[in-house]
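Quiz preparation item.
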């Protein structure tokens, strides 16, 4: 892939587990505006590595919605389901570095033995199960602390051993885990900057750890707040996930800018798509995004803007 020095390459990587909703639109808009305001490129990836969660037709629905909303992407779209040979190649690199072992612990067994089931206690580290089905494959973590800087959220430091323990790279059902897939794809797509939802902040240390082990360069990260319904439900899980289909799309995009503290004028809901994007790119300030992991929000769209 041609990449000139210092070129900004951002991306949006939706999982096709449903239609594009307000929360994912906010992630798409912020990664897009950050890339465009840096004269950078913006790539798309459909994260369908977990095919058990895929909702038929949602990938094409997401893409056609982005297209209708005037997003312009660079290069060809990557589908994770077509990248398994590449994931296997990098898994082999980790095996060669003696970082991988097979694990036969079931979730219920882990829950019985530990009050903090989310932290894998390393039961199978020394067991030498064969690295084949029906076992899951885990990556050994080190006790070294990682210092995680973020363009939006406060920096923090993590010790993977205490925070999550050895984590899954390939599942028992033989699907590759998101953590490996995303790291390999960001590397293959030469992504320099990742702007995404703060629900993924806790995955970032595992991803940075894998980048280090695989000798990849580390992209810069920025995590935007997750949009919550006033009741505390993630917007994607509430009735407002239908917002894109019910309202004037520009009214929803204007609201996404309000959510991101970009102070858009109300009239932005009634201009042409190209005027919308021109205003949004020229007035984009990453530093104005609230430094919160979650932000309660209710769409404020006049009835006249319903479709
Ligand atoms: N596929 C993830 C999602 O839809 C995003 C992953 C990422 O941006 O790294 O939530």
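Solution:
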């Amino acid at each position: 892939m041609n990449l000139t020095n210092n070129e900004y390459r951002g991306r949006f990587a939706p999982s096709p587990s449903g239609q594009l909703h307000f929360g994912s639109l906010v992630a798409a808009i912020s990664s897009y505006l950050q890339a465009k305001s840096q004269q950078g490129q913006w790539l798309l990836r459909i994260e369908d590595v977990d095919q058990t969660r895929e909702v038929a037709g949602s990938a094409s629905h997401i893409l056609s919605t982005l297209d209708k909303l005037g997003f312009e992407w660079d290069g060809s779209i990557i589908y994770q389901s077509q990248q398994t040979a590449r994931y296997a190649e990098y898994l082999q690199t980790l095996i060669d570095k003696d970082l991988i072992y097979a694990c036969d612990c079931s979730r219920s067994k882990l829950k019985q033995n530990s009050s903090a089931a989310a932290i894998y206690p390393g039961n199978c580290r020394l067991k030498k199960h064969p690295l084949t089905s029906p076992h899951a494959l885990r990556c050994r973590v080190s006790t070294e602390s990682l210092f995680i800087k973020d363009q939006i959220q406060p920096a923090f430091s993590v010790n993977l051993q205490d925070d999550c323990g050895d984590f899954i790279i390939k599942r028992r059902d033989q699907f590759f885990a998101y953590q490996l897939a995303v790291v390999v794809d960001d590397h293959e797509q030469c992504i320099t900057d990742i702007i995404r939802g703060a629900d993924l902040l806790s995955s970032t240390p595992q991803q940075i750890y894998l980048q280090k082990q695989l000798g990849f360069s580390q992209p810069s990260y920025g995590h935007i707040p997750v949009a919550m319904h006033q009741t505390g439900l993630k917007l994607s899980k509430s009735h407002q996930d239908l917002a894109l289909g019910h309202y004037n799309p520009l009214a929803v995009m204007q609201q996404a800018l309000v959510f991101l503290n970009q102070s858009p004028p109300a009239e932005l809901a009634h201009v042409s798509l190209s005027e919308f994007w021109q205003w949004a790119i020229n007035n984009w300030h990453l530093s104005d995004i609230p430094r919160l992991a979650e932000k309660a929000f209710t769409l404020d769209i006049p009835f006249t803007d319903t479709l």
